[in-house]
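G., before I forget:
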Amino acid sequence: MGLSTPKVLNKKEVARTRLFRIEEMNLRFSNGVERTYERLAGFNSGHSAVMVVPLLDDERFVMIEEYAAGTEDYQLSLPKGLVEPGEDLLDGANRELMEEAGYGARHLERLTELTLSPNYMTHRMQVVIARDLYEKRLQGDEPEMLGVHIFRFDQLSELVQRPDFTEARAMVALFMARDLLGQ
Amino acid sequence: MGLSTPKVLNKKEVARTRLFRIEEMNLRFSNGVERTYERLAGFNSGHSAVMVVPLLDDERFVMIEEYAAGTEDYQLSLPKGLVEPGEDLLDGANRELMEEAGYGARHLERLTELTLSPNYMTHRMQVVIARDLYEKRLQGDEPEMLGVHIFRFDQLSELVQRPDFTEARAMVALFMARDLLGQ
């Protein structure tokens, strides 16, 4: 909305691990101020990430319960994962839904794109709404069977206050789905 | 809700930069399966991160517009930053509000805690609602003056679809504030 984007004077990789890649960027802002920024890149090795809101009907949705190594506890979330090379976004969403929640969907639709922390991370995630579900389980690469739980949209305000549901992207996806269904 | 947390067999740092620290964890799940996980730790060097929802009244809120090095464009977000050592959470929230948006608040209240990606990151952020605002600007460490914009909660559904507003945590904070005000 006005300002011209800072000039990237230099960009280099400063660390790389199995999963993560960290870049350092030298920037010159339009007012002449120069700064060195670090950002997390390649969080998902170039593959599209996708998260699914599985709707059982207009009032209920499916969540998974999975061990989260970042917070070191079991957390509620929505089915999610990486789209495979050559795989369509909606097909990847349906596959993750089958692997993690044990449901397939006859109707899938892209809802939006979310970032995690646009200041510090290049990561983007596509959000897909899945409707007209049927029971179907595919074997994924999870180390253990994930918990599957059904909640109602009229419980959402309380759900987002639970200590075992903290993931902002899944919350946004559910708030947006609730708005969509309420229209 | 049932499963016992995996045993952490080993945890070590595999990379460290100015801003980020990456850890590798060896885990044994309760079914005996062993896995090696990587996670991003120390995203904010142990300081509490805080995000502020500044309410002008029951219908309008203040957003900032800032260059985001992760997505390499200007993005809308809410004022946010790190609480300083010895600083109270609400005082830190008010300071960031003054530095980034040019407002102080007479009433601040903690709303919730959010994670970014609990599977891969230890990061947590506190969300604070700020009311009864007055004009007050403090000098921060931003490389340039941030844009300040006022929006209405009845615009939120359209706002979250804008390509320059993608940050999941700020969206959740606004959806939760809207629910709170609607009660």
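Strands of chain A lie at 7-16, 21-28, 34-41, 49-54, 60-68, 73-77, 80-82, 103-115, 124-135, 147-152. Helices of chain A lie at 89-101, 156-159, 168-182.

More on Monday.
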